[in-house]
Amino acid sequence: MVRPAVPDLVHASTTPPEELQRRVRRGELVRVGRGSYVVPVAGLEPWAIDQQVLLSRAAALHHRRSGPHWFSHATAAVLWGCPPGTVPRTVDVTAPVRRRTTPGERDGAVREHYSPASDGDVCDVLALPTTSLERTAVDCAAVLPGSEGLAVADSALRAGADPAELDRVLGRRAGRPGVRRARAVLGMADPRAESVGESRLRWLLRTSGLPGPELQVPVRTAAGWRWLDLGWPDERVAVEFDGRLKYGRDGREAADAIFAEKRRQDAIEDEGWTVVRVTWRDLDRPAETVARIRRALRAAGRRRRR
């Protein structure tokens, strides 16, 4: 797992006003909170820009806030390197008691939570005070849409979350809003899921009523062993999530990767498998995507009965 770096801030309290104004006019600094600025980074992907904005806002909030507090929910997930898929625009911060704020202190880009911290719920191993990996996964499973909560839970397990601690944190949440959803999400979580897209796809299949697939299904082919993202071995139907990022930016590199991917799929299909490819765009058309997979499973069922 890759944990993102929290950008360094420039503070008005330690920078001469004339220099600060000049750098802002030139676009060398961007305001991310009251009295806090960050140096923008060029050439980033849109999601990376959103992530930098979120973490800059969190760092600015940490700088100006006194009293116990820790970053939680989706913000903590990003800090742990377990993002839910869509980078949130709002910073989630939790405190043990409700704070009194004046109108001037209120920030629409901050979502406040109030909850006591049990032993092990908060850690200081990251750049900012953050809920533990296990509590982060439970909080996200309880409040985020199911597909995003599952993406966090899957990646948290890949990052080393302790299943026993997940159960303990979930048990302490008994009777609170979202606990039933959290149990459903965490019951599906699997460290073998390799991407946010795969997690979202599994949630879609679960909520569509299709039988649950196996993950990382091994297939022996003439070209060697290949592993499928998702599959139903009895029906020999596979679903591969194609995020395209693996093909890179360079034209030749992309062409070589696409050719290698085609040879891989040909080898799998030569063993009698049907491969259904799903992209990010397909996830935005869930009914069509489910219908494609259902048709493939039905066709496989007919072949088995012959």
Short description:
The chain is α+β, with helices and mostly antiparallel strands and 306 residues long. It has 11 helices and 12 strands. Helix 4 (133-143) runs antiparallel to helix 5 (146-158), helix 4 (133-143) crosses helix 6 and helix 4 (133-143) packs across helix 7 (179-188).
Describe this entry's structure for a reader:
The protein has 11 helices and 12 strands. The radius of gyration is 23 Å and the shape is globular. It has a 4-stranded mixed β-sheet with strand order 9-10-11-12. A 3-stranded antiparallel β-sheet has the order 1-3-2. It has a 3-stranded mixed β-sheet with strand order 4-5-6. The longest helix has 20 residues, at 251-270. It has 2 domains: 9-190, no CATH class; 203-305, 3-Layer(aba) Sandwich (Endonuclease, Chain A). Helix 4 (133-143) packs across helix 6 and helix 5 (146-158) crosses helix 8. By secondary structure, it is of the alpha+beta class. The mean pLDDT is 89. The protein has helices at 17-25, 46-64, 73-79, 133-143, 146-158, 163-172, 179-188, 196-208, 251-270, 280-283, 286-305, and strands at 9-11, 30-33, 36-38, 70-71, 91-95, 110-114, 122-123, 130-131, 214-221, 224-232, 237-242, 274-279.
